[in-house]
Amino acid sequence: MADIEANPFISFRSVCKSYGGLHVLKNLDLTIRQHEHVVLIGPSGSGKSTILRVLMTLESIQKGNVLVGDGHLWRDTGDGASMPPPRELNAIRRKIGMVFQSFNLFPHMTVLRNVAEAPVRVLKISRAEANERARKLLLSVGLAEKEDCYPIQLSGGQQQRVAIARCLAMRPEILLFDEVTSALDPETVSEVLNVIRSLASEHKFTILMVTHQMDVAREIGNRVVFLERGRIIEEGSPNQVLDNPRNDRTRSFLRAVLQA
Ligand SMILES: Nc1ncnc2c1ncn2[C@@H]1O[C@H](COP(=O)(O)OP(=O)(O)OP(=O)(O)O)[C@@H](O)[C@H]1O
Questions:
Q1: What's the ipTM?
Q2: Which protein residue has the closest C-alpha to ligand 1 atom 7?
Q3: Does the reported pTM lie above 0.95?
Q4: Ligand 1 atom with least separation from CA of 20
């Protein structure tokens, strides 16, 4: 707990993001501490995925600062926001890994190659070392026996576990999960959640997850953040936000989700 108190690890400070005239993040302030597991919930279009995409530098911002560890990922220049020079940027980017709803595995590569490829290409480690790393990860996600399979031969839950192993092969400190269980059958969701939970407790990752599934938020989150129209409306422990929301808008969102 001391770490959580001491280290703001990711900070969004007065971040504004628009797509044309559509203001998606409005002076967003969000701090995530090291080893915290934060889950973003909220209506469609509230800006949840945009927060993850800004952290991955897949999207730019118009204003504000985003810090990761000691470094500025985005720095407010007074006339927009800029990223650091490539070397500094790469050092920050390497701390972060993301897993997507749609798995995004390479269909023409075996499971082993899917996991080992980025360490070889990006980290320039030897193929033998990358394969060893990949095998250990496949074992930890329960897929050791599938290393020679191709993605099409796997179930959705298995493909998502490969995607998680692939993300971990780059040894990130921060894991971003964007609706990673949304495309799965209800029985398979727990298979993937179990993997995330056990990896998280073993390796002390900092986790930021987006989900529409409140039971997933409850299982993974130390903190749940409810966003609406690019603003944080309410945040707190899963019990507090999901069972005893203080804000009317959180209440009506949860009512609608539970009735759906
Ligand atoms: N590349 C883009 N160009 C234009 N508008 C975009 C783009 N990406 C997202 N948007 C819009 O920005 C808003 C926020 O999108 P975002 O994906 O962050 O929301 P979300 O809360 O994750 O939604 P969902 O729960 O449906 O995934 C939406 O209205 C979306 O249509």
A1: 0.96
A2: 19
A3: no
A4: 4
The number of beta carbons lying within 10 Å of the beta carbon of residue 64 is 21
Report how far residue 15's alpha carbon sits from residue 230's, in angstroms, rounded to the nearest whole number. Answer: 10
Q: What is the mean pLDDT of residues 188-201?
A: 89
For the stretch 55-64, pLDDT in tens is: 999 999 999 9
Please report, for residues 101, 215, 245, the alpha-carbon distance to residue 239 in angstroms, rounded to integers and kept in the order given. 25, 11, 9
Q: Are 236 and 218 in contact (CB under 8 A)?
A: no
Residue 160 has pLDDT above 60, yes or no: yes
Ligand 1 proximity of 230 Cβ (cutoff 6 Å) = no
Rounded (10°) angle between helices 127-140 and 186-203: 120
- Residue 3 clears pLDDT 80, i.e. is over it: no
Each residue's pLDDT tens digit, 25-72: 999 999 999 999 999 999 999 999 999 999 999 999 999 999 999 899
What's the chain's Rg over C-alpha atoms? Answer: 18
Sorted by where each starts, the structural domains of the chain and their CATH numbers stand as 2-95+178-184+208-259 (3.40.50.300)
**Residue 36 to residue 189: CA distance in whole angstroms:** 22
Alpha carbon of 138 to ligand 1 centroid (Å): 33
Inter-axis angle of helices 186-203 and 156-168, to 10 degrees? 20
Residue in 25, 49, 60, 253 to alter for ligand 1 test, most ligand atoms within 8 A of Cβ: 49
Query: For ligand 1, is residue 21 a contact (CB within 6 Å)?
Result: no
Determine if ligand 1 sits within 6 Å of the CB of residue 80: no
d(CA 92, CA 57): 10
**Reading across the β-sheet that carries 37-41, which strands appear in turn?**
96-99, 174-178, 206-210, 37-41, 223-228, 231-236
